[in-house]
Write a structure and sequence with these properties.
InterPro entries: MATE_fam (IPR002528), MATE_MdtK (IPR050222), MdtK-like (IPR048279). The chain is mainly α. It is about 75% helix and about 0% strand. The longest helix has about 40 residues.
Length: about 475
């Protein structure tokens, strides 16, 4: 059932819902990745490998901070999808108020911290001296957009929680078009604008984010959407803020742990020089395409699971898992084949340096063969997150990254005296995370939350028709 407010995913064909709900998100991801590719082409082909390396060392820091936004907005997605599935719209409205207060507030705080500590973090990452100054300037400009990014993520996630993945796509399209136009104008100083070089890409992002978040606020208000932002009613909002934090903090920790893991891995790669860093950056662009379907299928699965758990349809959740594995696994195998057979062709899109390409080919041969493990992990994590058990997927991320990937990357790279050790560690960590996530899913322990749920006719004071995230057994990945 569809309406202007969203889509009821508790009825109808599961594979149809997965496809129709995921496709706009995948298209949005492709749009963003297309912009990322265009940006990498401008930087890599026209500004050189030094500028590409500067972006590469800056992005893990950005991802670490944005991981907090993703965690909080994952909480909003789970809570909105569960309330929407259970048809409890008063609670949904309060969740919206709590989410927007937290999102904009955290965005402002983290922007300030990022401006102050950017140089210290980049030094700790062993950033090559010849790209340090550019990296600091780029990162500080990028941090200005954090409050806007947090707000955009929150609105997008809540729309998706109601089964609406089309509206975020339309606004994301507008954002990508605007950034694509602004990029060369600000990089090269066309039409009388200042020539900003690498920093022009960061300013293009900031301007586009501002325009889009304002437009999205206006659109939702005019549409009369249940998640249209308003000045929050702070009285009685404490319980909802606490509920969002119960899910959001573990999810944010998970996202930030993943991004911090990439900071550590990037630091290890940096130790092998500018060529290795640039190769890592170029090959990571291919990863973005490979991971895109898996990440978006995982988000779709989380929303479908949340709505159906809210409605008490456990049998449909099992069906979501089976179809998710089929779709996500098949697509990732096709992408692995292309990355392994045509690595040079893919890498030459971003960089023409033969030495960088040689190192990047080795990355794609090793890491590209293991994409399927990553994609299947997102399916089981999607179910676990949909139940509200964000602590579990946080632990899975902790095991994969900090118990396995980072230590093994350090040890292997030193033992082999090559960044190849890092590539092998990344591949093996995909396998470890899939095994742990699937093991937890098949154990059925995530279903303990369902035992606390009563009928939808129960009053709000004596029962909850959705799993209480603070009482569930133990919670979106985003880490790459």
């Amino acid at each position: 059932m569809s309406s202007k407010s969203g889509t009821d995913l508790t009825v109808g064909s599961i594979p149809k819902h997965i496809i129709t709900f995921s496709l706009p998100m995948i298209a949005g991801g492709l749009l963003h990745t297309a912009y990322s590719f265009i940006n990498a082409i401008w930087v890599g082909q026209y500004l050189g490998r030094q500028a590409l390396a500067a972006i590469t060392v800056s992005f893990p820091v950005v991802f670490t901070v944005i991981g907090i936004a993703i965690g909080m907005t994952l909480a909003a997605n789970i809570l909105v999808s569960q309330r929407y599935g259970a048809k409890r719209f008063d609670e949904l409205r309060r969740i919206v108020d709590a989410t927007m207060v937290l999102s904009y507030g955290l965005g402002i705080v983290l922007m300030i911290l990022g401006e102050v500590f950017a140089p210290f973090v980049l030094r700790a990452m062993d950033t090559p001296p010849d790209v340090f100054h550019e990296s600091v300037g780029y990162l500080r400009i990028y941090m200005v957009s954090l409050p806007l990014t947090f707000g955009t993520f929150a609105l997008r996630s809540m729309l998706q929680g109601m089964g609406d993945s089309r509206t975020p796509l339309l606004f994301q399209f507008g954002s990508v078009v605007l950034m694509t136009i602004l990029d060369p104008l600000l990089i090269f100083g066309h039409l009388g604008l200042p020539r900003l070089g690498l920093n022009g890409t960061a300013w293009a992002t900031n301007i586009a984010q501002l325009v889009v978040v304002i437009a999205l606020h206006v659109h939702l208000r005019l549409r009369g959407s249940p998640i249209a932002p308003r000045w929050p009613r702070f009285e009685g909002l404490g319980a909802e803020v606490k509920t969002v934090l119960r899910i959001g903090i573990p999810a944010s920790v998970q996202q930030s742990l993943g991004s911090l893991g990439m900071v550590m891995v990037t630091g290890i790669v940096n130790g092998f020089g500018e060529v290795s860093t640039a190769a890592f950056g170029a090959a990571s662009r291919i990863d973005q395409i490979a991971f895109l379907p898996a990440i978006n299928f995982g988000m779709a699965i989380s929303t479908l699971a949340g709505q159906n758990l809210g409605a008490g349809h456990l049998d449909r959740v099992r069906e979501v898992f089976r179809w998710g594995c089929l779709f996500s696994g098949t697509i990732s195998l096709v992408i692995s084949f292309v990355a392994a057979v045509f690595p040079e062709v893919l890498l030459r899109v971003f960089i023409g340096d033969p030495e960088v390409i040689q190192h990047g080919v080795a990355y794609l041969h090793i890491v590209g063969s293991c994409y399927v493990f990553f994609s299947l992990m997102f399916v089981s994590n999607g179910i676990i997150n949909g139940s509200g058990s964000t602590v579990v997927t946080t632990l899975i991320s902790l095991i994969s990254l900090w118990v396995f990937r980072v230590p093994v990357a350090y040890w292997l790279s030193r033992a082999m005296n090559s960044e190849l050790g890092v590539w092998y560690a990344i591949s093996l960590s995909f396998l470890v995370s899939m095994v742990v996530s699937m093991g937890y899913y098949f154990s059925g322990r995530w279903k303990q939350a369902l035992g606390k749920k009563k009928g939808p006719s129960s009053s709000p004071t004596d029962a909850k028709p959705v799993p209480d995230p603070g009482e569930v057994f133990v919670n979106e990945v985003g880490e790459v």
